[in-house]
Amino acid sequence: MMKKRKLVVANWKMNPTNAEGAKSIFGKIRRAAKKMKQTDVVAAPSFVHIPVLSKLLPKGNGKKNLFLGAQNIHQKDFGAYTGEVSANQLKEFKVRYAILGHSERRELGESDEIINEKVQSALRQGVAPIVCIGEKERDSEGEYLNFIKEQLVNIFRGLPKKYLADCVIVYEPVWAIGHTFKDSLSGTDMHVMSLFIRKTLSEIFGKDYGWNMKVLYGGSVENENAEDLMKKGDISGFLVGHASLDPLEFSKILKVFGSPQIKNAG
Ligand code: PGA
Fold first, then answer.
1. What's the start-to-end Cα distance of the chain, in Å?
2. How remote is the CA of residue 103 from the centroid of ligand 1, in Å?
3. Catalytic residue positions, numbered
């Protein structure tokens, strides 16, 4: 299960403030990614920066490990949806992944049912869904586990099994997002959650599916906790928020998968 390639996703959220800044961070991440052997790196900038960064993607026919991701898509492929962007439109810019169901989008009213439609739209368009799940708080009775199960059941409802391998799951406990490594989940606790997620998926889809899916951790991943999470968490990688805007910090996180650090990054 852990033999698969690793995946590290940089979620830049509504940053940086201009295209020059985005190009600068992307260039440094590209250098760091180039040195990685068994790890794919996805940069997920704001929509406005996607066209310019698309031109900076590695060229040539060699094996590539740096990709562009969107932070959201609309659930329809095209149509009269003012202010929205579809996976269909993103293909032109070589966007290969889309973060779906992030808790900051759920705060704006996105339901599991809408996320389910978004997953289907992404898959129709050949864009790999990076599906976020996670509870807002934990209770000692373990009710939050039922909540996680419900999210998985709802989001993957009706999805043909053959598409599951193209999906990535990110467990992001909402209470751990946007803090420091001190407030994140521990590697040992992630191991428990990882088993729970895989077991639940196996119950829904059959054991060949659940145990083979990529499960990432997100929520205050920093240089200080990356190694513990990676070694003990039974995960395939990370979704990194604030630390992905600092190329030196991000390169240190990549280093837990064997990457050398970027020199003079800042
Ligand atoms: P964070 O964000 O690393 O800043 O906690 C993670 C995320 O919300 O994607």
1. 36
2. 10
3. 102, 172
